[in-house]
Structures are given as C-alpha cells and as structure tokens.
Amino acid sequence: MFKRLAKIGVLLTIKEGYLLAKNTYGLGAHPFKTLKSLSREKDRSQELLISGWPMYVLALGAGVVWVGRRLLATGETGGWGAKGMTILFLGLSLAA
C-alpha cells in the first residue's frame, strides 16, 4: 500500500514539476498563449502556481531583507517604519 502511494506521489510530483516549468517558460516566451491554454485546460493547480509567482517573489524579497537585517545586526536602526513595511510586505504576499 505504501509503495503504491509513494509511486503515485512521485509520478504526480514529476508531472506537476514539468507543467510548472513549461508554464513558467511559456509565460516568458508567449504569455497570452500560455494563459489561454491554462484557461482552456481548467487545471486549477497550475493556475494557482502560475498566478502566485508575484506573491512568491514578494515574499522571498521581504524575507531576504528581514534575514539580511538580522544577519547584519543592525538592530532597531530602521525603527517603526522598517517593522511596519516588513509586516505589510509579508501580509500582502501571504494574503493570496
């Protein structure tokens, strides 16, 4: 039973990974054609993955800034503005 579930999980991971790579490339090369094919296929998981790219980039950028501030040990030099912007960026990126 576990072996069968593991096999199905691996196959689904390979399929979704391929589709994500194909659709990401397609958005860069010919975005309207890719979006049209996504809407025609009704593949909701790929639509969510592709439409989430701006949120992923925003979350990654805000996370890098936050970690960088902690690694550089700048402390409270940013004040409430830096804290507020960090919370705002993280909140907006995770509110998808």
Q: How does this structure look, described?
A:
The structure is a single chain. The chain is mainly alpha-helical and 96 residues long. It folds into two domains: 1-51; 53-96. It has five helices and no strands. It has helices spanning 2-29, 31-41, 44-51, 53-71, 79-94. Helix 1 runs antiparallel to helix 2 (31-41). It starts with a helix and ends with a helix. The model has no long low-confidence stretch (mean pLDDT 78).
Shape: extended
Supply the helix-strand structural class: mainly alpha
Q: Tell me the total number of β-strands.
A: 0
Q: Helix tally?
A: 5
Q: What is the count of structural domains?
A: 2
What is the mean predicted local confidence, pLDDT?
A: 78
Quick summary:
With 96 residues, this protein is mostly helical. The chain contains five helices and no strands. The chain has helices at 2-29, 31-41, 44-51, 53-71, 79-94.
Features:
single chain, 96 residues, mainly alpha, 2 domains, 85% helix
Helices, strands, pairings?
Layout: H1 2-29, H2 31-41, H3 44-51, H4 53-71, H5 79-94
